[in-house]
Each structure stands twice: as structure tokens, then as C-alpha cells.
Amino acid sequence: MTDPIKVNDSDGNPIEIATVVVWRVVDTAEACFLVDDYVDFVHVQSEAALRNLATRYPYDSDDDSIVALRSHTGEIAETLRTEVQDRLEKAGVEVIEACITHQAYASEIASAMLQRQQAGATPPAENCRWRCGDGRNGSGATRRGRGGGTR
């Protein structure tokens, strides 16, 4: 498992991200002789693969056709597993699974991004009109049967 690292996504936004990689040694000779410390090698290569992956994708996207770290977790996990495996194969290590365990906007922009997401989720006031109890269109509602409004 990697500690959360700070890296910029493909849009340039600073994010924090961490991963866990499940692995096993399949060739002990390669694991012992080609690298000094295969446990450390796995950790370093997993972090490097995670950094590389995070810079290739945006953290979030409004467009569902764009692969993003937050919305396409299965596809991202498989891409991460493949990249880590490519890096560890020469050390006789097989990657069984790799997945992102933590992802968030970095603290310095988290509140601004939350406001942006909330603004995008709140429809403009002119779209929030409904039918009043007297048949007029308006922005006010008449409550009926709950002790308020007009009867």
C-alpha cells in the first residue's frame, strides 16, 4: 500500500491519491538476484505507476465519455494493474490486483472544487418554476393540507 501522494491530474489540478497492490513472487531467482530488495522495489514501482496514471487522467469529468479517475474506477484499476505488472515482471513478481484506495482534491483546492461541483449540481433559479395552486406558473408554491397556504 502506498501512502497518499500529491500529484497533478491531466487537467493540472493537484490531487491526493493512494493505491494498494496485491502481488506475489512467481520467480524467486529473479526476485532475489535482479533487484536488491524486491519488497522495496514493488513499493517504489507501484508509486511510480500510480503517479504516471494520475497524470494521464482527469480527477473528474462532466462528460461520461471521458475516462476519469473518480468515475471509471474499474477501467482505472485495470490500467493501473497492467502498468504495475509491466514494471514488476522483470523482478519475478506477479500483480494480482491493484486499486486506488484514496483519491481527493488536494487540500489547497478542495473547498473551491466542492463549490464548483455544488454550483454545477444546483439548477439556475429560472429553471426552478413549478405550478402554483391557483394554476399560475410562478416561483412560489401553495401548501395545501399541511396547515399552511391557502385553501
Describe the structure.
The protein is an alpha+beta fold. The protein contains four helices and five strands, in the order ββαααβαββ. It has helices spanning 28-33, 38-56, 73-88, 107-121; strands at residues 5-8, 14-25, 93-105, 130-131, 137-138. The strands form two sheets. Strands 1-2-3 form a three-stranded antiparallel beta sheet. The chain has a two-stranded antiparallel sheet with strand order 4-5. β1 and β2 (14-25) form a beta hairpin. α2 packs across α3. The longest helix is centred in the N-terminal third of the chain and has 19 residues, at 38-56. Residues 137-151 have low confidence and may be disordered.
Element pattern in H and E: EEHHHEHEE
Low-confidence stretches: 137-151
**Sheet with the most strands?**
3 strands, antiparallel
The helix count comes to: 4
Can you list the strand order of the major beta sheet? 1-2-3
**Total E-strand runs:** 5
Helix content: 25-40%
- What distance lies between the first and last C-alpha atoms, to the nearest angstrom? 63 Å
Overall pLDDT metric: 81
**Structural class by SSE content:** alpha+beta
Gross geometry? elongated
Rg, alpha carbons: 25 Å
